[in-house]
Amino acid sequence: MKLRPLHDWVVVERESVRSEGNDISISSLPSNQGRVIAVGQFVRGLKKGDKVQFNAYAGYVLYSQSCTVTLIKEADILVFWTEPME
Questions:
Q1: This prediction's pTM
Q2: 10-49: string of b/e by CB count within 10 Å (b at 16+)?
Q3: Which structural domain, as residue segments, surrounds residue 64?
Q4: Tens-digit pLDDT profile for the chain (86 aa)?
Q5: Please, which residues have CB within 8 angstroms of residue 10's CB and are 6 or more apart in sequence?
Q6: CA-based end-to-end distance of the chain
Q7: Domain count, the chain
């Protein structure tokens, strides 16, 4: 599924929440970090692939057969960073 957000919306794929010290995924807790999948035409400073942190309950969750993403307003993103290419 290819999403193209409008205006100042950002499509984010949330990271899995992991309990401390284990590799167990806890799906009942929403993650507050993720990777940018797409940005609207009025979003400045963010691009596809950036990692972002936001309020865990921000935005709207969109479900499809292939993936689950969150649609978040640019103003709700607290911080972002770009990981170096490996």
A1: 0.81
A2: bbbebeebeeeeeeeeeeeeebbebbbbbbbeebeebeee
A3: 9-80
A4: 688 999 999 999 998 766 565 666 555 667 899 999 999 999 999 999 999 999 988 999 999 888 899 999 999 999 999 877 55
A5: 36, 38, 39, 40, 43, 46, 52, 71, 72, 73, 74, 77
A6: 26
A7: 1
